[in-house]
Write a structure and sequence with these properties.
heterotrimer; A mainly alpha (about 300); B mainly alpha (about 300); C alpha/beta (about 240); B: about 300 residues; mainly alpha; 15 helices; about 80% helix; globular; C: about 240 residues; alpha/beta; 9 helices; about 40% helix
């Protein structure tokens, strides 16, 4: 697994074009640029843990977004019963979901690691359904929201105002990405994880405890996604199905960036986030924004399969 | 030996066809639901035999429903014919998606199909003039004016068609192709099988069946809507049924559908909102503990004494 | 005319040349041995000719026709068959049905004919009790089934990839006879082997691969004395 994207000549050209487009966008529809970046980082920060699991443990977790949903509900009830702000609840959320990750791995995930991909897909699909339906049973499908004063913070540049709270997502995305990269490259646990991701049997031969690595990576990923749920809770209304869309968009990003390319996820999320907001800015066509990720993933798949034709 | 089996099937068929003569409307409606899900479960299993999972049943089911309903409304086409057209529409869509995505298969294909229902829901919501938008469209009348006997026969026909299709997939060369592809694509290719073409073919046929089922459903209940026609129920239940009963067979999904169909009628009495949870649990438990399902595990046990 | 001819065939994986500048001819109804040390590219060679990989460079001609871009299943139908080193029988099908897959799709026979042909081939190769489960077969039987499966596609050119691996002395003798029987049906055979005794007894000519390149070519007697081959790796004398 190569956590760093490769820089080539053509990438510099793409970067320059992107900067020019960004400036044009800022002039024409600044809302799209700002909100697009914020949204993109929300997608990225959710997709990164999923990419981690896929790249290292090799399992696709269709219940990923639902763990985020649980994190959001966790933060909500934490707030209701203790009055603690959800952003502060990130800490207990991380701990709680790390434990939940351990439990899920031990009880369930472990058993399908060796099984065909089919079984993994079906199992995590079933898990997602169970989580969503359980949430629906316990908390009903009525959306709930916290009204926190600071989420409506905004700033103005000239006559153009924009929300500033959402930059929290940008911060979170950068922290998580940098944190993961540092972890993978500069800690022995991280390097062991990389080794296991590339070659589990080889790693075992040199003495790396593969199962424990899987456990750690899986739980870390769940912890992160639960904590992100807490952040999400501050700004959005939540309901049992809120996570499902993020699972699919996360997969879209991973497919675009390529498995193992963590930095690429950030760039691809920018594409998705900006594109969605761009479409949203046209009054009559706003409803179509949710199809974009699908169009993107189909295009990516078509392009990838052309590449693979060279077998 | 063979003949007694066929006699059994014919007997079952006769019982099923004459059911309306000695049961009431309630039971017929329960049978309707069971048969619809049975057909869906079979169509899902047929694709599964090739090694690919589709989570898009709800999507293709809904497309069939909308196509059948809207064609009937806007062009006055006969409801029965519109159901076939619904299947055609679903098949064409599956062809487009399959051609684009089946080169990569596996999880890419599975997740794209997972997104299908949502995509169609969004499309339908955003074309209100054509589709009636978020509230959906109500048909002026249910098919056969709601006559429960004729409705039952329609659903029975659809279910029988699915059973026949499943058996065709099991008795012709398609069975060999599917099993080879599922086991090892390289071996399949080296045996002369055009893997991609077969996969697209299977996906299109099973999706067309799902579209027909959806079309029938739309006409029976007399309306289509984004939430109702693309409901996750239509993906979740058939999968649970096929897994419970046993994949890669005709009897498996049938057994699963009957068991779960009957069970859900009871479940609805005691836990009105929790039944979907049960299906999810069934899937999880089946994958973890008995991936062969009931029919598969029994079949193995019967073979064991050697 | 050569049944199969490769022209400057090359296959790269990333930067690594698994095959490079390979020019080989398979003459009609000959048995051509393909030997070389581990990792020399022998199986890759088969995979490229069979169509599992497309060549990165060069061309492949089958009976004069350029097949370099054809997908694997088309090449199979044209008449190129092969066995696999690591045999994975198809689960869910009986022994006979495994073989039938070849006859059904290799030449597009109907089910009844395909079954007949498969039965014939099983007999020809000495396989008995063919409707049984594939989970209870000996190594020799699995190999035979694999060959039957390849033969069922009615190949003109058949590649046998290490069919002798894991067989004892008697079984190897039986297999050598079988290969001769197959050859007598007019099939051109390419045989990859590590067991030199087999190569010595069966082949008309041998090519030696090392690091993806052909380093020697000729009858076994010549090749086994070629200093280049000896230095590269001669393989075990069985």
């Amino acid at each position: 697994m190569n956590p760093f994207g490769k820089l080539k000549q053509s990438n510099y050209q793409i970067a320059i074009i992107s900067v020019i487009l960004a400036i044009l966008l800022a002039a024409w529809k600044p809302h799209v640029l700002i909100e697009g970046i914020q949204r993109a980082c929300l997608y990225a920060v959710i997709a990164l843990p999923m990419a981690l699991i896929l790249g290292i443990v090799g399992i696709i977790n269709l219940a990923h977004g639902d763990f985020m949903m649980l994190g959001a509900y966790f933060a909500y009830f934490f707030n209701v019963y203790t009055g603690v702000d959800p952003l502060v609840a990130i800490a207990p959320a991380l701990l709680a979901f790390f434990l939940i990750g351990i439990a899920s791995y031990r009880a369930i995930i472990k058993y399908v690691l060796g099984a065909p991909e089919l079984n993994q897909l079906l199992l995590t699909f079933g898990l997602a359904m169970v989580m969503e339906q359980l949430a629906n049973l316990i908390w009903t499908s009525r959306p709930i929201k916290l009204s926190l004063r600071y989420v409506s913070a905004s700033a103005a540049i000239g006559s153009f105002t924009f929300g500033t709270f959402e930059f929290v997502y940008v911060g979170a995305a950068i922290i998580v990405l940098v944190g993961l990269l540092l972890f993978l490259k500069h800690t022995s646990m991280g390097q062991a994880a990389l080794a296991v991701g590339q070659n589990p049997r080889g790693a075992k031969l040199v003495g790396i405890h593969v199962d424990r690595t899987y456990l750690l990576v899986f739980s870390l990923s769940i912890a992160l996604v639960g904590a992100i749920g807490a952040i999400f809770m501050t700004r959005h209304s939540i309901f049992p199905l809120v996570g499902a869309a993020f699972t699919m968009k996360s997969f879209c990003l991973i497919a675009m960036a390529g498995i193992g390319n963590l930095t690429g996820i950030l760039w691809c999320s920018l594409i998705l986030g900006l594109a969605e907001n761009f479409v949203l800015s046209f009054r009559g066509y706003a409803g179509w924004a949710d199809i974009l990720f699908f169009a993107l993933i189909v295009c990516v798949i078509i392009i990838r399969s052309r590449q693979r034709q060279v077998k | 030996m063979r003949n007694s089996r066929y006699l059994l099937y014919i007997l079952i068929l006769i019982i099923l066809v004459t059911l309306p003569l000695h049961t009431g409307v309630y039971l017929l409606n329960v049978m309707d639901v069971i048969l619809i899900y049975l057909a869906l479960a079979l169509s899902w299993d047929m694709l599964l035999r090739s090694g690919q999972i589709s989570f898009g049943m709800a999507g293709l089911f809904g497309v069939g429903g909308y196509a059948a309903a809207l064609l009937h409304l806007n062009t006055g086409v006969n409801p029965l014919f519109s159901i076939i057209l619904g299947g055609l529409a679903a098949g064409v869509l599956a062809w487009l998606v399959g051609m684009a995505v089946l080169q990569l298969r596996g999880m890419y294909f599975a997740i794209v199909t997972l997104a299908l229902a949502e995509i169609f829901r969004v499309i339908v919501r955003n074309l209100p003039d054509l589709t009636g938008g978020p509230e959906g469209t109500i048909l002026p009348s249910a098919i056969f004016a709601g006559n429960s006997t004729k409705t039952y026969w329609l659903v029975l026909t659809v279910a029988v068609v699915s059973v026949i299709a499943s058996e065709i997939f099991r008795r012709t060369r398609i069975h060999f192709a599917l099993t080879s592809i599922r086991n090892d694509e390289v071996v399949a290719k080296s045996s002369g099988i055009d893997v991609f073409k077969y996969l697209v073919f299977i996906f299109v046929i099973t999706s067309a069946i799902q579209g027909i089922i959806g079309g029938a459903y739309a006409h029976i209940y007399g309306f289509v809507s984004p939430e109702g026609s693309f409901s996750i129920d239509f993906t979740l239940l058939p999968i649970a049924m096929a897994l419970l009963g046993g994949m890669h067979s005709t009897w498996g999904p049938v057994v699963g559908a009957v068991l779960l169909g009957v069970a859900s009628e009871f479940l609805k009495l005691y836990i009105p909102y929790g039944h979907l949870l049960v299906y999810g649990l069934i899937i999880v438990i089946a994958i973890l503990f008995f991936p062969q399902g009931i029919v598969g595990t029994l079949g193995q046990r019967l073979k064991k004494p050697r | 005319m050569a049944v199969l001819k490769t022209e400057n065939l090359a296959r790269y994986f990333g930067g690594l040349a698994a095959l490079n500048q390979v020019n080989v001819e398979f003459r009609e109804n000959e048995i051509l041995g393909i030997i070389g040390p581990n990792g020399a590219g022998k199986t890759t060679f088969i995979n490229v000719i069979a169509g599992i990989y497309l060549p990165t460079e060069g061309k492949i001609f089958f009976n004069g026709q350029d097949i370099s871009g054809l997908p694997a299943h088309r090449r199979c139908r044209l008449g190129i068959g092969r066995t696999f080193q690591l045999v994975r029988p198809l689960q869910g099908l009986s022994l006979l049905e495994n073989v039938m897959v070849g006859s059904l799709f290799g030449k597009g026979l109907g089910q009844r004919e395909a079954r007949k042909k498969a039965k014939e081939l099983c007999e020809f190769l000495g396989l008995s009790d063919i409707t049984r489960d594939i989970t209870e077969m000996t190594a020799l039987e699995i190999k035979k089934m694999e060959i039957a499966h390849a033969l069922a596609t009615q190949p003109e050119l058949l590649f046998l990839d290490e069919v002798m691996a894991g067989l004892n002395s008697d079984e190897t003798m039986e297999m050598i006879d079988l290969v001769r029987k197959i050859h007598s049906r007019g099939i051109t055979i390419g045989i990859v082997e590590h067991v030199m005794r087999v190569i010595r007894e069966l082949t008309h000519r041998v090519i030696v691969l090392d690091w993806g390149e052909v380093i020697a070519e000729g009858p076994y007697g010549e090749v086994s004395n070629d200093p280049r081959v000896i230095t590269a790796y001669l393989g075990e004398e069985a």
